[in-house]
Inverse folding.
């Protein structure tokens, strides 16, 4: 298993490369943050160095949660052809390339922010995974063993459409795995308190996404049904509770809670534009972010986020009724 050591060097390389080529100047800037150029506005988060560092933290956290496993799908054989949707800075794809040197790994993203020093079996391409996968519709291009997507479904206009594209490009018996945080905070007894700052933030974000784009977040609890409707079988779910803050006495939980909270602090300020769609002013947004950060440092508030892993298999033969319960 490849380690995450050295990822800071990759970020440094990306930063130096973008400055040398002038690529950063061609990206739109708003509120001091840089965003993607290709299909401008399709994805609401920035792609600058701060966001890249946040993605690195997220990768380290997820690898910790999954005990250094890159995926949970029970593939009988090592994958030979792998696609990573919305690959971001590409750390998952790079580690897959290290671990499976005989596999071809393709990472797709709206932003060309991946390093150039990668394993020889890893390729990155700028593309919009929500478009018709026209460039992939060619002979022998529906033979992927494994397609992976992490921390992206909340930003999709139509996750079900993307999943339909995925199953069309998997070979029979191929696997899809989706991983993502469900940011709503649950108390220790599993209940959701709407007064918890993170939940007030999520309530605003869900309303804004629905108002501006007709997009539903969070969609994770429904992902199994969406996968089954697309035709997947053997659909399974794994969930992991990750604390907000460092209140747990268990050292592993404390470590994960600390990283999750730093990640959330970096993510919060990127929400100004989205919250503006429902009339939240920058001052109101800043006050909400401040309340969330105070919550992360308040040891009396015991709550968790949930990390979801969904995986499923394309049937060996086409199902007669893909929407049926399995």
């Amino acid at each position: 298993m490849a380690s995450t050591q050295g990822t800071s060097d990759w970020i440094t390389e990306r930063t130096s490369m973008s400055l040398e080529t002038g690529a950063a100047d061609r990206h739109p800037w708003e509120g001091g943050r840089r965003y993607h150029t290709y299909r401008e506005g399709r994805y609401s988060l920035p792609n600058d160095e701060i966001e890249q560092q946040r993605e690195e933290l997220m990768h380290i956290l997820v690898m910790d949660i999954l005990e250094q496993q890159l995926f949970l799908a029970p593939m009988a054989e090592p994958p030979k052809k792998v696609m990573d949707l919305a690959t971001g800075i590409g750390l998952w794809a790079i580690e897959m390339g290290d671990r499976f040197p005989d596999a071809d790994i393709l990472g797709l993203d709206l932003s060309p922010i991946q390093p150039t020093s990668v394993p020889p079996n890893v390729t990155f391409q700028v593309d919009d995974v929500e478009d018709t996968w026209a460039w992939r519709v060619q002979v022998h291009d529906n033979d992927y063993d494994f397609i992976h997507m992490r921390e992206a479904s909340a930003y999709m206009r139509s996750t079900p459409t993307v999943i339909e594209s995925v199953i069309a490009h998997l070979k029979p018996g191929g696997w899809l795995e989706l991983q993502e945080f469900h940011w709503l905070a649950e108390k220790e007894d599993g209940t959701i308190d709407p007064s918890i700052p993170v939940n007030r933030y999520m309530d605003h974000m869900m309303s804004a996404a629905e108002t501006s784009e007709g997009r539903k977040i969070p969609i994770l609890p429904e992902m199994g049904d969406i996968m089954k409707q697309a035709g997947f079988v053997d659909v399974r779910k794994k969930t992991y509770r990750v604390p907000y803050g460092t209140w747990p006495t268990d050292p592993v939980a404390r470590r994960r809670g600390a990283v999750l909270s730093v990640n959330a602090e970096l993510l919060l300020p990127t929400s100004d534009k989205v919250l503006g769609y429902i009339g939240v002013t920058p001052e109101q947004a800043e006050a909400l972010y401040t309340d969330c950060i105070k919550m992360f440092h308040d040891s009396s508030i015991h709550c968790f986020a949930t990390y979801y892993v969904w995986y499923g298999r394309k049937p060996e033969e086409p199902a007669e009724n893909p929407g049926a319960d399995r």
